[in-house]
Amino acid sequence: MYEPNVVGDWQEYDEHAGLRVRVHRLEAAEPPRGRDDAAEGLMYFCVRVTVENRGARHATIHLEDGQIDVRVGPDGESAFIDWRNSQFIEGFDVYPLRRATAVLYAAGPEAALSQVDVQIQLRVDDDWADRRLWAGGIGLLEGAVQPGAAREGLACQVSNFLRDQAEEGTA
To answer: Which domain of life is it from (predicted)?
Structure first.
């Protein structure tokens, strides 16, 4: 079973030697150019996605809208993404030993922000890399979650779901 990364972890891409990605600095933050009216009553947060090239040749990186999905809460509801305030990586050449960072502003119900999942699908030199998932939450410190904790939480959720389904079928 695929185990998600914890916010702050680096993820290496086997198909693109030397390239790695990290979702980090998940924190409550107001957007620099003001709140979007559609985010009325929601709490804003910011997340950074850094792409690092440790390989021998440059890679052209695309990390734009549609390649980042943010879900909040135990039900995995879609977060409001403020495209106007966010900064993406659009066709940037990342040379060896260099980095590029995207800054994403999103919003969600304050009660749901203790569980935030960020899914990234990077495009490198016009090739799509596999999707990767990072799990974290507002108020949690990077690295504070043990690697097995995400799996145990998921296993508990699956077990509860199956138990609920079995109870419905027996009635």
So the answer is: Bacteria
In tens, the pLDDT along 40-91 reads: 999 999 999 999 999 999 999 999 988 999 999 999 999 999 999 999 999 9
Distance CA 157, CA 121 (A): 25
Cut 0.85: pTM above it: no
CA 51, CA 43: separation in Å to the nearest integer? Answer: 27
> Of the candidates 114, 102, 14, which has an alpha carbon nearest to the alpha carbon of residue 62?
102
